[in-house]
Structure formats: C-alpha cells, structure tokens
Amino acid sequence: MTDQQASPQLEEQESKYAKSARAFRDNVTRDLANSELRSNFRGAMDYLMDKRKAAFCEETELETLRIQCQQIKQRCLAKLPILLEQLEDKLTQNGIKVHWAETTTQANEIIAQLIEAKKGKSVVKGKSMVSEETALNDYLAQRQVECLESDMGEYIVQLAKEHPSHIIMPAIHQNKQQVAKLFAENIEGFNYNTDVDTLIQQGRSILRDKFCSADVGLSGVNFAVAETGTLCLVENEGNGRMCTTVPDLHIAITGIEKVVEHLADVPPLLSLLTRSATGQAISTYFNMITSPRKVGEKDGPKEVHLVLLDNGRSQAFADEELRQTLQCIRCGACMNHCPVYTRIGGHAYGTVYPGPIGKMISPHMLGLEATSDLPTASSLCGACGEVCPVKIPIPKLLLRLRKESVKPKDAAGEVMKGQGAGRSATEAFIWKAWALVHKSSLLYQLSMWSLTRFRFLMPKNLGPWTRVRTAPKPAAKTLHEQLKNRKSQASTGRG
Q1: How far apart are alpha carbons 194 and 104 in whole angstroms?
Q2: Can you tell me the distance from the alpha carbon of 42 to that of 249, in angstroms, rounded to the nearest whole number?
Q3: Whole-angstrom Cα distance, residue 339 to residue 252?
Q4: In angstroms, what CA-CA distances link 216 with 119, 153, 289, 351, 409?
Q5: What's the confidence (pLDDT) of residue 4?
Q6: Which residues pair with 219 in a beta bridge?
Q7: pLDDT for 495
C-alpha cells in the first residue's frame, strides 16, 4: 500500500501528531503552569535516577558494559540489511510469518487484515510503543475491533483517553489520587481508594478475564535475534506472557532497528536495559518466542506474525552519523535525567516518543516541518549522553538536527524530510550581516560605537530571545574604550 492509498482516518491521526508537535511551545506553556504535573514528574524522576545510580554502583563495570553494548549495536546496524533478511529466513523456518511495512499505514493495514482473517473482534495488548507510533488502537476502533491495553500504565492512560508520557512508565504523570479518581469515574462498582495495591488489583481483575476471551494478542519486541529467529520481550507484570500465549493469534510489531545478530548479544543488552530503565538487576519476566505452538504442546498461540516497521528509520540509517539514533534500546534513562523533560513532562512534546530520544527520532518519523522546535528544546547539558547505556552522542545529534532544520532547502545532498523547515530569511540575513561586520575592523568599531551611543533605542522585544529572557542593555562604552580610559587614568596617576 502506498502513502496515496492511506485511509483518511489514519492520515488524520498522523496529522494530529504532527499538529501537536508543531504546538510544542504552546504545550510547554500549558504544562509548566500545571504545578501538580511538575510535582509528579519531579518526584518520579528523582526516584528513577536514584534507582539507576544504585544499580550501577561500580563505575568501571558500567563503562565496560556500555562500550560492549555500543559495539554490539553498531555492529548489528552496520549489517542491518543482511540481518533483517537472515531474521526473516529464520523466523519463517520456525513457523513465524514476517510482514514488512514501510509506513504506519501499511503496518496497521497488515494487522487489521490478520485480525479480519480470523474474524477477530477483541485484541489484548502487551506494552508496545511501536503500536502507539502507528496509532493502532484508534485504527482498530474505527473497524469495530476492541483493543485493550494490558500493561497497567498503558491501561490507565487508555482509560484517561491519553497517550503515554514516558516510554517505560506510560502513566508516570499521574499520582495515585488521580488514578483513584479515574478508576472511580470509569469502573463500575469501584469506590475511591488511594491504596496502590488496591488500585493495581482492581486493574488486574478486569484484565484477567480479557486475556482468556481475547481473539488476538499483540505485543512489542525488545530484541529480535537473527541467528535463531527469536523474539525477546522484557516485562515485569506477566501481561506480556499472557498476551503472547493465551490467544490463538499472536501479532508482534517492532521497528527494524531491534534486530541483533547473535543470541549472545542479548544478555549484556538486557543487563543494561533493565538497570538503566528501572534499576532492576533483571526484569521479572523475559520471554523468548521462537515458534507457534507445536504438536503436543499445551499452550501458546497457533499462529505468530511479526510486523517489521520502517517509518523513517531507513532515513536515519542512510546517514552514518544519524544512524547512531537507531542504537537506542528504549530504556528511558535519557528522559529521566533530562532537566527539560523533568519540568515539562512527556505530553508537551506532542509526539509518541518524548524527551531526548523523541527529539532525535521524531524528526525522522514526522519530518522537520512538524518537529523543528524539538531539537532546540535542550540545554545541551550532556546528562542524556552521559547516562545513555549504548553511548549515543545525543547532544551532538541534536546539534546536527538543528543544522538540518536551518539548512537551505536547495542545498545538495538532502538527507532529511523537511530539511530547512526551521530556516528564517530574517535570521539568515542577521547572521550574514553579523559575519560581514565582524570581518571588517572598521565596521566592527563603528557598530560598537553606535550600539553604545544609541543604546536607548534598543527595543524591549527581541522576538524569541526575549520570550524567556530579559532584553540585553548595552553598556555606555565599549570594553576597548573602558580599558583605554583605565590605562589613561593610571598613567595620569603615576605622573
């Protein structure tokens, strides 16, 4: 299916994400004014940072593991086309059917067709950010297919008719009082109760019946092993295992960058993923799916399908520097340590992936026309790069995206959709004038003299600069003049 054949409903959903990303500045203003939201994030981020720090108490071991995993991801990405073909061959041999999707539209159509072929009417989902990327829930709802999130955080977000605000903990923006109110308003027979265990048990009691009655189970994939044709799924609640074993049809969806070459590549990556994400030595469940149910086995799905999604990833892959974006293992550590994300939360970004990783990957998915503001939403403090378990140079890549955003559209070698979308003719003229003045000693001295003598004409509104800063006030004399006067006074005093 081509982009021209995309359904109007999905095009509307995709434009919704793009529109929300374009409204980033307004979203930030809105969420900064929400004191409860800021308090929720501050407490949660402090907790997660402390957990990660405790999990990596030995700096030497951490750095050795980071280098090892960086090399694993870079090796696998360098061989990505070959490994994807190998993965397809192995999965097919194992009885798992593989589908390729270039766009989110194609991915959703493939999944809908698989469900329709089985006359499915209900889907129970494990945690999958890629299905959020494709807006699968909305897509299936338009086709009268019930799609229920079984991850507790995702269930809360779905109940609130929101999108995840964090890639690991979707409902991290809500506190227990807000969740209790949400349950009381939406779950029949539930009385307002802020006890966390009670809230979790209430959610699980509803989900338990859904696992048994669902026609289809859908999940994400953390690692897809080309060597053995194995789909690896990391989770803590057991819902992922239920989704992938109880329904007769299991559909997995993942990005093409999740493939690794060898099964031996998984343990070090898993060790970094769990400790970076939640501070756990290992997750409660680690599922390895290699085939549908075999003859004589008592459980497991009768059919397993894998949908491999591109959605802009090939664009990042094509550029050697931007390819490093695809090293991400979706641990969320960069978000937890980002001073910007901590203050504005995940929804302000308006994209599926918020925080530093979102600022890197969203421009490839939505184009720079919609996301040109995102790479600039960083203090470039470097915290995200320092904690990234696979050593992605996040600040460097953000600077590269800023450059692509303002690069002239007619520049040779366009590498990104929407290149030059953030370019301003006025800003370009100002920088050219600045360069001209600073290349000439005479023009520089004249401009500085004029700036100091006519400083009362300096406007209070200097566009984006004064949106969050006080307008600068030029000194009465230039630094050169002040030093010259000081030297003169000193000479006079000695005389």
Answers
A1: 38
A2: 41
A3: 34
A4: 10, 20, 16, 27, 46
A5: 40
A6: 252
A7: 46
129 C-beta neighbours (distance < 10 Å), count? 18
Q: Which 3 state secondary structure label does DSSP give 45? A: helix
Edge to edge, the sheet with strand 216-219 lists 97-101, 303-309, 249-255, 216-219, 122-125, 146-149
Residue 143's CB is within 10 A of a number of other CB atoms, namely 14
User: Alpha-carbon distance 486 to 495, whole Å?
Assistant: 14
Q: Are strands 230-235 and 146-149 parallel, antiparallel or unpaired?
A: unpaired
Sign of CA dihedral 161, 166, 170, 174: negative
- Residue 381, H or E segment: none
Partners of 477 in beta bridges:
none
pTM of the model: 0.89
Tell me how far CA of residue 9 lies from CA of 65, 100, 139, 228, in angstroms. Answer: 45, 21, 7, 38
Give the relative orientation of helices 104-117 and 8-22 as an angle to the nearest 10 degrees: 140
Distance (Å, rounded) from C-alpha 333 to C-alpha 272?
A: 10
Q: In the 8-state DSSP scheme, what is residue 305?
A: E
Q: Which helix (H) or strand (E) holds 27?
A: helix 24-32
Give the residue among 372, 377, 330 at the shortest CA–CA distance from 170.
Answer: 330
Give burial (CB, 10 Å; 0-12/13-18/19+) of 71: middle
231 token code pair: 């789909």
- pLDDT at position 149: 94
Per-10-residue mean pLDDT of the chain, 495 residues long, equals 46 68 90 94 94 92 96 98 98 98 96 96 95 95 94 93 94 94 91 90 84 92 98 94 94 98 98 95 94 92 97 96 97 96 95 96 94 94 96 97 86 79 87 93 91 88 83 88 86 65
Q: How far apart are CA 293 and CA 300, in angstroms?
A: 5
**Cα(228)–Cα(212) distance, rounded to whole angstroms?**
30
